[in-house]
Specification:
It is a single chain. By secondary structure, this protein is α+β, with helices and mostly antiparallel strands. It has a single domain, classed as 2-Layer Sandwich (Alpha-Beta Plaits). The protein is built from 5 helices and 6 strands, in the order E-E-E-H-E-E-H-H-E-H-H. A 4-stranded antiparallel beta sheet has the order 4-5-3-6, with helices on one face. The protein has a two-stranded antiparallel sheet with strand order 1-2. Strand 1 and strand 2 form a beta hairpin. Helix 1 crosses helix 2. The radius of gyration is 24 Å and the shape is elongated.
């Protein structure tokens, strides 16, 4: 499970769900390639401030659940992940080059969505909307009980 990341001036829990298709949607993700991908991602975690919470491959695409810090944008994270994994996978598995001509491993596009550990969009929206409601209710009650300057 993900944990809050504590830094000098912030605490964060940022989770991103990325989906990255293989180039031409080729079905290249065998068990050995998926295992290599997970090993490469473990090395990326050490070098960069990201955590791969989960990695799951289908035959032609990969789902990443990645936790990061606010200083890194989702675009920067996925560009780095795709670049490093492509280079390493093509080196470790030369058979991929026979399937994917042109030296590209991933499509240029990707899907990204934020993931909340403590609630969905609706629950967070209501939480934010109701901030200070106890305080506001107390203020209204005090205003009704106290005479105002304009009362007769």
């Amino acid at each position: 499970m993900s944990k809050h990341v504590h830094r000098q001036h912030n605490v964060s829990l940022l989770l991103y769900h990325f989906v990255c298709p293989a180039k031409y949607r080729k079905q290249i993700f065998t068990e050995s390639i998926e295992q290599s991908l997970k090993e490469i991602c473990a090395h990326i975690e050490v070098a960069y401030e990201i955590t791969f919470v989960e990695i799951g491959a289908d035959q032609d695409h990969v789902h990443f659940l990645i936790q990061s810090v606010p200083m890194q944008s989702p675009k920067r994270i996925i560009q780095m992940v795709k670049s490093l994994t492509a280079r390493e996978l093509l080196q470790r598995h030369p058979e991929i080059s026979k399937i994917l001509w042109g030296g590209k491993f991933w499509t240029s596009g990707y899907y990204v969505n934020t993931v909340g550990r403590h609630g969905n969009e609706e629950s967070v929206r209501l939480y934010v909307q109701n901030q200070g409601s106890d305080y506001k209710q107390l203020q209204r009650k005090d205003l009704v009980e106290q005479p105002t300057l304009f009362s007769s």
